[in-house]
Design a protein that fits this description.
Helix content is 78%, strand content 0%. The chain contains twelve helices and no strands. The chain starts with a helix and ends with a helix.
Amino acid sequence: MAVVLALLSSVMWGSADFLGGTLTRRRTSLAVVGGSQVAGLVLALLLATVLGRWGDDPAYWGWAVLASVSGFVGLVSFYAALARGTMGIVSPIAALGVLVPLALGVVQGDRPSAIQLAGIVLALVGIVAASGPELSGRAGATPLLLAALAAAMFGTALLGIAQGSRTSPVMTITGMRLVTVLLVLVTALWARSLGGLRRADVGSLTVIGGFDVAANLLFGIATRTGLLAIVAVLGSLYPVTTVLLARWAHHERLSTVQYAGVAVSLTGVALISAGAVG
């Protein structure tokens, strides 16, 4: 079940990234991030209320704050890296954030089987390849450092979700959204701009926020029932969903290495799943 939940979370994250990237072509990134986070907060509050989770042990709060702040810093760093560098170099580096929870899982005692280890390696290679690496490209030190910071922050956010979900997956996500919305509001006040959002954008922002909340929640639940090392890798396959949606909806051309990355990732998923069944 953990494998299925983690894969569903990657599909949700990848879909949210695709829709967010599409909307960012018409609105600023801050507006899209902020608007989707507000929508996500509303959905999280409704979910927490319907499920009656407000009385849960508040031990999740520290992890929720960590996940929120690190995720926000990671996103800002990622966009800054993209603005200064080449996407084909920056994106694969940022995708390696999965190494943070993967390493923690191993330290905590996760012992995947031999076939699952092979699947993990293939999935990691596939994630980087699907992100469209440019092996012959050049980038300055600043975008590389920003991409590395984004990777570390994204990985820390996954770790925070996993740890907070041990207490309460729903309230961890709710706390995350609350803190992130506050960070976005502070940033918007500092920038003195709402990014030009319009009423027509509400539907798209709600879908993006909903997918993001669902992805976080599914990932958190998966970490409670499966090995963190495996769940983290499967949950981080979202670049595969994003590139496939871009190919299908926008007819974007994929490079040979991206096609190979998708195939390698799926092979890794098959091996991890086979190991779980065995």
